[in-house]
Specification:
The protein is mainly alpha-helical. Helix content is 47%, strand content 9%. It is elongated.
């Protein structure tokens, strides 16, 4: 069962003040949420500009292969790969005897 009570003037004023505080707090949350979204977009834009700057700077210096790069303290710190990997040891030069590329199998005659 529900009952309804009328508020006196003092209680009505207090309720109005509480409602106003609540509405102000909700408005602040809304404004902060919008500011937060804009800040995230700005951060993403700045990060992309930094990545682009690093790529361009490395390209200007002729560095095409790198594993990691970052800017710190006015410098560009780059991790470059070690020497290129050696070819597999089982590869034979094309002129090696017995090697046939893309040809039909050859059966060797046994005597």
């Amino acid at each position: 069962m529900e009952k309804t009570f009328q508020l006196d003037q003092k209680e009505a004023v207090m309720l109005t003040q509480v409602d106003q505080e609540r509405m102000q707090a909700l408005a602040m949350i809304g404004a902060l949420s919008l500011d937060m979204e804009q800040a995230k977009k700005n951060l993403d834009t700045a990060a992309e500009r930094q990545r682009s700057f690093i790529r361009q700077t490395l390209s200007n210096r002729g560095i095409e292969r790198y594993e990691n790069a970052r800017a710190a303290n006015g410098s560009l710190i780059v991790t470059v790969p070690d020497a290129p990997p050696a070819p597999p040891p089982d590869s034979l030069p094309e002129s090696a005897p017995g090697r046939r590329l893309n040809g039909s199998p050859v059966a060797e005659a046994k005597e």
